[in-house]
Design brief:
The complex is a heterotrimer of chains A (185), B (328) and C (729).
Chain A (H helix, E strand, L loop, with lengths): L3 E6 L8 H9 L10 E9 L2 E9 L8 H5 L5 E3 L5 E3 L9 H5 L6 E2 L5 E2 L5 H5 L5 H5 L5 E5 L6 H8 L2 E2 L11 E4 L8
Parallel strand pairs in A: 1-10
Antiparallel strand pairs in A: 1-8, 2-3, 4-5, 6-7, 9-10
Chain B lengths: L1 E6 L14 H26 L5 H4 L4 H20 L18 H23 L11 H11 L2 H24 L11 H21 L3 H30 L3 H6 L11 H27 L10 H29 L8
Helix pairs in contact in B: 1-3, 1-6, 1-7, 1-11, 3-4, 4-5, 4-6, 6-7, 7-8, 7-11, 8-10, 10-11
Chain C lengths: L4 H26 L10 E6 L8 E7 L2 E7 L12 H4 L1 H5 L9 E3 L8 E3 L2 H19 L4 E5 L4 H11 L4 E2 L1 H18 L16 E5 L9 H12 L3 E5 L5 H4 L3 E3 L6 H14 L5 H7 E2 L1 H7 L5 H8 L3 H14 L3 E3 L11 H14 L48 H10 L7 E5 L3 H4 L3 H9 L3 E6 L11 E4 L11 E4 L3 E4 L14 H11 L11 H12 L3 H7 L1 E3 L23 E2 L3 H5 L19 E6 L13 H4 L6 E5 H7 L6 E6 L8 E6 L6 E5 L19 H4 L4 E2 L6 E2 L4 E5 L3
Parallel strand pairs in C: 6-7, 6-13, 8-9, 8-12, 9-10, 11-19, 13-14, 14-15, 20-24, 21-23
Antiparallel strand pairs in C: 1-2, 2-3, 4-5, 4-15, 16-17, 17-18, 20-27, 22-23, 22-27, 25-26
Helix pairs in contact in C: 4-18, 5-18, 6-14, 9-12, 9-13, 9-14, 12-13, 15-17
Classes of the chains: A alpha+beta (185), B mainly alpha (328), C alpha/beta (729).
The complex binds ligand MGD (2 copies), iron/sulfur cluster (5 copies) and molybdenum atom.
The site of one iron/sulfur cluster (SF4) has 14 residues of chain A, from α1.
């Protein structure tokens, strides 16, 4: 079984927001809701400023508190290791939304919880996730950690990486790489 | 200085969480109340051993009200569900790590035990009200098992009281909730409000007095635990420390939380003061009935406690959602 | 009974058949509850959410476009679309679209529309046009146009007898740059710009705010270069996204860019950092240049620009050391001040000194093949009075000057203009000085707008004709001049909604009513496209399937070593010193011009792009609106503190002429110089037909009541307005 991960090259993100809207269209995300976002963080004082741009999405945590919180197993780990939501089992209790330290989830107007699926349906067709495919900066890189010749393995080998809120102990599968500094994840 | 601009925000999680609202608060409050009443009524039934079962049965109103309260509470959480029609899936599995799952299974079980308890304590002369013959029969049979059922309901009450707190404290992502003090705080406050409720509904002076006494200890414990709760968070790392800020800030957006805390620290000691006053009046033991003003004072103190416990829950549920582990 | 063998076979067959039937019954039973969904169709076309014109592939399910993706073989998209490209679906399904032809029944520009049939609308227009032609001549009809629809309406107008058209894309956009590069290199840098950014070692962005300016493949290459560790130098009074990627952010005082450019030239020459072989081989006028820039020392430039001389020197050396793989981005929207062309000339000269034209990482050469133009008809256009659309600007481009049309309408000089066609441009948002625009409109006998959405400019028209969106129509081929030459097709991916029609149909139908049917000798545009493809030797059916075809062996991006390349200038050389400019009485080598700076308490109004919007045309797009509902006014933190302004507070901007903006939220930020206020362009629509965009945010154009004009090419300077902040909303 593959071990899907996303590597986010912070320096290559140019804040074009193509990912945000491509994801919405691909996954029919309802109005006013999002499965992914782009965070722009600027530090310093004029004229000594630094900027970091990074996209954020569900981390498909290895130790996923959202799964633990779910009473019905609607939130579950799929065979490929990704964290998925089975809509027909979801009672919409929103416990998983509170449990996720990354604000990755939202409540779908139809009642169930929803979040990034790593574009499960596209993976099945052998395509990359929509956000990755359209990422103008090639800042989002997707792949299989178990495939030693994959780009993600290569990138993680060459770069220091961090994950968001590492201290939360969730063991994210979305890794952030950057050459200079990594800001407030 | 750090400027953060985010594109693609969900209103439910940004700028702060707006996931659980008043429905959950009512659920937690009513759940706690009924937990306290179950425990207290069981104590009453177990603590007064010399009395006949018939006498004990006079406590019937407490389990009955506890049942109604819990049932209404449960209704509110169902009201909060986005897809209650899928609830069946909750009963096709048990998830030990999911407090929601504990609730899904736990609440009906508590309700069941509670119902049996009610049947057991119904006084003979009231049994005719049970419409169905099998209930009548069951009631007759259970009457002899009152003590055992009281024990079970004691456990159920403690479970329920702790559960309402653990439900919140299980969320590692929410600094204000995620600590071990919270379940104990919720349990004690549940017991306290349960005792207070019994004071209000009990007709018998003895019982009123007994629970007034018990409640004194509970209130003291509650106040101490609240202080420990804040102290524990204050001495913790950044997000946890930040989480209690709303209670100590007088900015317009957070004033309500400071107000809540102040109210709690006014209501509970006031109740305490009244109760201690009552206690003094009866230092020499009581004879016969209370005067009207005594009843009024005892009830007033009880209501203060119940209101305090409601405010506590409301404040913690809302304030908890203001602070996250991450800084945005 | 005897079962014959035949019968047996029959029975076996039925049994088998039955088995199959049961099987499928089982399948349908299992599939119960699942709505049968037809297989998606993938149709390639060309995006028109902006003018980069990427190849897009529409995913269509049950006649609905559900997703747009980038065409992998198209060089402008490379398999990706920008946010706006994805948002094309929002445009298609915007409920506020223009749905039927409309005629204004109220006072001029009142926007009191009644729905009419196409026949009535076209008849009305044709009738008015004939009357105007009789009274004033056909030249009295002017066309303001932008986008692919321009092709048909320029054709129609020329057939009718008027040469007077103007695009906002010249005077208000690329005009200065194109002129400067033509003067210097004999050729404009093209659209897409022929910049080899992915191979650049150093990238200099002068105001170009890539990332926010979301031109697809350019952004891709920029990120590629950043990823490879290119040194980025950004001159911008605002800490743009691109500045966030830069090693050197030079927060230059607005309007002083020419000072730094001249100082750089000075240092590069003085320190011998220029490409000597290249300069000797390809350029003309080096000595004059060296002489002319002597006075522009870094110390002088520091005083002008607020950028420390040390930093100017340091960056000049970075350029020199990395030559020729240096990209001095020529910019695109260069309509800044009154000396646009000279500023752009300085850029061109710098490019030449670094030997970066025709070299990796610099500006690559245009494709070495050409596709001969194929006209909509072979018929010659009628004779007409001399065109007025270029004014008295000797270097004005063929796209015409919008402000000259406005002025001519107002003054009726050199001859009256009595009708405007407005096709695919929002005249209220694109053109400065809205008051002049309105005054001019009031003088007109006929205003026709062909548009897809009821944006501000459309509201002013007498007749409104609803075009269908780019996803519902054919358009003329797009000749893509990237590194290689190619042809890109636009074809409908769904049928036109409502009563909307393609631009070519509208022009043709109007032509018919004007007796110009001979100019439209094809029934459908596709018929014309097929002929055109045949002439070009391009397989049309393949184009339909792929959306884009590259012309083989058309790419030659770089100069060969020792190549004797002949530039398309009169001298065949890169003209550092321009004889042409000299001949027309302009400085042959750029000289610094000082511009007015805002007085105390006032701020220079600057503007730019947001990645999720295209000018004003997307502000009502439901898909894009969601990502940015209104613009904000960027104000420096210290300034805000001084006047007691909070982040997120609504304010109003007032300009030097007392014009007040709509209310706009303050973005209090460290990211801008204290002497400017920045707005994203396009917001603050006054069209009440727009459910989402109506009166949201502030309109930069409304505050641009004053504009400068560059005497060389007639390009406009729009960053010459000063505003102050008021808190009365
Ligand atoms: N203040 C200020 N002014 C500027 C600029 C600025 O940044 N600030 N930018 C300048 C620049 S660089 C440019 S290029 C120009 C751009 O100027 P315009 O191209 O005029 O830009 P928009 O404001 O987007 O107006 C486009 C109009 O075309 C319509 N439209 C869009 N698609 C179609 C179509 O397929 N068919 C038809 N018929 N109509 C369509 C839209 O509905 C809208 O009404 O503006 C220039 N003016
Ligand atoms: N998302 C998106 N992308 C677009 C478009 C769009 O509408 N939306 N439009 C496209 C078109 S047609 C064009 S022309 C381009 C325009 O995009 P560019 O050519 O990149 O834009 P600029 O005119 O350079 O203006 C924007 C920047 O100039 C800075 N600036 C303002 N004044 C000065 C000054 O005096 N000196 C310097 N150095 N900088 C200054 C501003 O702070 C801002 O960051 O964008 C294209 N790309
Ligand atoms: S990011 Fe949140 S939603 Fe995603 S797996 Fe981790 S905890 Fe669950
Ligand atoms: S909202 Fe749905 S997915 Fe989330 S915890 Fe509840 S049942 Fe599970
Ligand atoms: S992987 Fe798919 S679902 Fe997740 S953010 Fe990207 S596009 Fe959205
Ligand atoms: S598409 Fe890529 S470059 Fe653009 S904002 Fe998203 S992550 Fe950044
Ligand atoms: S850059 Fe974006 S909006 Fe412009 S044509 Fe390409 S995809 Fe469309
Ligand atoms: Mo432009």
């Amino acid at each position: 079984m593959p071990k899907y991960v996303m590597v986010i090259d912070i320096e290559r993100c140019i804040g074009c927001m193509a990912c945000v809207i491509a994801c919405k269209k691909e996954n029919n995300v309802p109005e006013k809701h999002f499965r992914t976002r782009v965070v722009e963080e600027v530090r310093g004082e004029f004229p000594n400023l630094r900027m970091e741009l990074r996209s954020e999405l569900c981390n498909h945590c290895e130790n996923a508190p959202c799964i633990d919180a779910c009473p019905t197993r609607a939130s579950h780990r799929a065979k490929d290791g990704t964290v998925q939501i089975d809509r027909k089992k979801c009672i919409g209790c929103k416990a998983c939304i509170l449990a996720c330290p990354y604000d990755a989830r939202y409540s779908h107007p139809e009642g169930f919880a929803d979040k990034c699926s790593f574009c499960e349906h596209r993976l099945k067709e052998g395509k990359k996730p929509a956000c990755v495919e359209t990422c103008l900066g090639k800042s989002r890189i997707f792949g299989d950690l178990d495939n030693l010749s994959s780009e993600v393995v290569e990138l993680l080998r060459r770069h220091d990486f961090s994950v968001r809120l590492e201290f939360a102990g969730t063991q994210p599968r979305v890794f952030y790489i950057k050459r200079s500094f990594t800001g407030g994840l | 200085m750090s400027e953060i601009t985010i594109t693609g925000l969900n209103a439910i999680t940004h700028p702060y969480l707006k996931v659980w609202d008043w429905r959950i608060i009512i659920y937690l409050f009513l759940g706690g109340l009924s937990a306290g009443m179950l425990v207290m009524s069981s104590i009453a039934n177990l603590r007064i051993p010399k009395q006949s079962v018939k006498e004990l049965a006079k406590c019937v109103r407490a389990p009955f009200i506890a049942f109604i309260t819990l049932a209404i509470g449960a209704l509110f959480i169902i009201l909060d569900l986005g897809k209650p029609q899928n609830l069946i899936w909750g009963y096709l599995t048990f998830q030990p790590l999911s407090l929601m799952s504990w609730g899904t299974w736990g609440i009906p079980i508590v309700l069941l035990l509670n119902a049996l308890y009610i049947l057991a304590v119904i006084p003979e002369e009231q049994r005719y009200r049970l419409k169905f013959p099998f209930l009548l029969k069951l009631s007759e049979k259970l009457a002899s098992k009152v003590r055992a059922l009281a024990k079970w309901n004691f456990v159920a009450g403690i479970f329920l009281g702790i559960y309402t707190g653990v439900l919140l404290s299980s969320f590692a992502a929410i600094p204000l909730w995620n600590n071990a003090t919270l379940p104990i705080l919720f349990l004690v406050s549940a017991l306290s409000s349960g005792a207070a409720m019994i004071v209000v509904i009990a007709k018998k002076a003895e019982i009123k007095f007994l629970f007034t006494k018990i409640d004194i200890w509970l209130i003291v414990a509650e106040l101490v635990i609240i202080l420990l709760f804040f102290y524990g968070l204050y001495t913790s790392t950044a997000p946890y420390k930040k989480a209690i800020k709303p209670f100590f800030s007088f900015t317009s957006e957070h004033f309500i939380f400071s107000l809540a805390l102040i109210s709690i620290f006014l209501l509970l000691p006031l109740a305490l003061r009244i109760k201690i006053g009552e206690l003094r009046e009866f230092e020499g033991g009581f004879q016969g009935d209370f005067t009207k003003s005594q009843v009024f004072r005892m009830n007033l103190a009880a209501v203060l406690v119940v209101v305090g416990s409601f405010i506590l829950r409301a404040a913690i549920v809302y304030a908890g959602q203001l602070t996250k582990l991450s800084h945005y | 009974m005897d079962l014959s063998r035949r019968d047996f076979l029959k029975i076996a067959a039925t049994a088998g058949g039955a088995a199959v039937a049961t099987n499928s019954v089982v399948k349908t039973v299992l599939a119960l509850g699942k709505r049968p969904v037809s297989l998606p169709q993938y149709i390639p076309t060309t995006c028109e959410m902006c003018f980069w014109r990427c190849g897009a592939i529409a995913k269509v399910v049950d006649g609905k476009v559900v997703k747009l993706d980038g065409n992998p073989i198209h060089p402008n998209s490379r398999g990706k679309l920008c946010a706006r490209g994805h948002g094309g679906i929002g445009l298609l399904y915007d409920q506020d679209r223009l749905k039927t032809p409309l005629i204004n029944t109220g006072a001029k520009a009142e926007g009191k529309f009644k729905k009419v049939s196409w026949d009535e609308a076209l008849g009305y227009i044709a009738d008015k046009m004939q009357k105007i032609k009789e009274k004033y001549g056909p030249e009295s009809i002017a066309l303001l146009t932008h986008g692919s629809i321009s092709t048909y309406f320029i054709h129609l107008l020329q057939a009718f007898g008027s040469p007077n058209f103007a695009f906002p894309s010249f005077a208000l956009c690329r005009g200065a740059r194109d002129t400067a590069f033509e003067i210097t290199f004999g050729e404009a840098v093209g659209n897409p710009e022929r910049i080899d950014i992915q191979n650049s070692k150093v990238i200099v962005l002068i105001g170009s705010h890539l990332g926010e300016n979301a031109h697809n493949s350019q952004c891709q290459e920029f990120a590629e270069a950043v990823g490879k560790g290119a040194t980025v130098i950004v001159l911008d009074p605002r800490f743009s996204t691109a500045a966030g990627k830069a090693k050197y952010w030079l927060p230059i005082k607005p309007a002083t860019d020419l000072a730094i450019l001249l100082a750089w030239i000075n240092i590069i020459i003085n320190e011998g950092l220029y490409d000597k072989d290249y300069v000797a081989r390809y350029t003309l006028g080096f000595n004059e240049l060296a002489q002319a820039v002597k006075e522009y020392t870094p110390q002088w430039a520091e005083k002008e620009t607020d950028i420390p001389a040390t930093l100017i020197i340091e960056t000049a050396r970075v350029l020199g050391k990395n030559k020729p793989n240096v990209l001095i981005h020529p910019g695109r929207h260069t309509a800044w001040y009154s000396d646009n062309v000279q500023r752009q000339r300085a850029i061109a000269i710098l490019v030449a000194l670094l030997g970066a034209y025709g070299r990796p990482g610099g500006i690559y050469l245009s494709p070495k093949k050409k596709l001969e133009p194929v006209f909509l008809s072979e018929k010659d256009y009628p004779e007409h009075k001399p065109e007025l659309n270029k004014g008295n600007y000797p270097f004005a481009g063929d796209e015409g000057l919008t402000h000259v049309i406005v002025k001519a309408t107002l003054t009726e000089q050199p001859y009256p203009i009595k009708a405007w066609f407005i096709t695919g441009t929002n005249i209220m948002k694109a053109m400065p000085n809205q008051k002049d625009t309105i005054k001019a409109l009031e003088k007109l006998d006929l205003v026709v707008a062909v548009d897809i959405m009821p944006y501000d400019g459309v509201m002013l028209a007498d007749v409104v004709l609803p075009e269908c969106t780019y996803l519902e129509r054919h358009d003329d081929f797009f000749v893509v001049k990237e590194r290689a030459l190619g042809v890109s097709l636009r074809q409908p991916v769904v049928q036109p909604m409502y009563e909307t029609k393609p631009g070519w149909w509208i022009a043709k139908e109007l032509g018919k009513r004007l007796g110009l049917e001979d100019y439209f000798p094809w029934n459908t545009l596709e018929e014309f496209l097929k002929t055109k493809a045949q002439i070009w030797g391009v397989d049309y059916s393949e184009l339909v399937k792929k959306g884009y075809i590259e012309i083989p062996e058309s790419s030659k991006p770089y100069l060969l070593p020792d190549e004797n390349y002949k530039f398309k200038t009169p001298s065949g050389k890169i003209e550092l010193y321009s004889q042409e400019l000299k001949r027309h009485g302009f400085d042959p080598i750029p000289k610094y011009t000082k511009h007015e700076q805002p007085p105390e308490g006032w701020f220079r109004l600057i503007y730019g792009r947001a990645p999720v919007h295209t000018f004003s045309r997307t502000i009502n797009n439901p898909s894009l609106w969601e990502l940015m509902e209104e613009n904000v006014a960027w104000i420096n933190t210290k300034v805000a503190k001084k006047i007691g302004l909070n982040h997120g507070e609504y304010i109003v901007l007032v300009n030097q002429d007392g014009i007040k903006s709509n209310k706009v939220k303050a973005k209090v930020t460290e990211r801008i110089r204290p002497d400017c206020i920045y707005l994203v362009h396009g917001f603050g629509s006054t069209s009440r037909f727009l459910r989402r965009a109506y009166l949201r945010g502030a309109d930069d154009q409304q505050l641009i009541t004053r504009y400068a004009v560059d005497p060389i090419a007639g390009t406009v300077g729009m960053r010459v307005n000063f505003v102050k902040i008021t808190k009365e909303v």
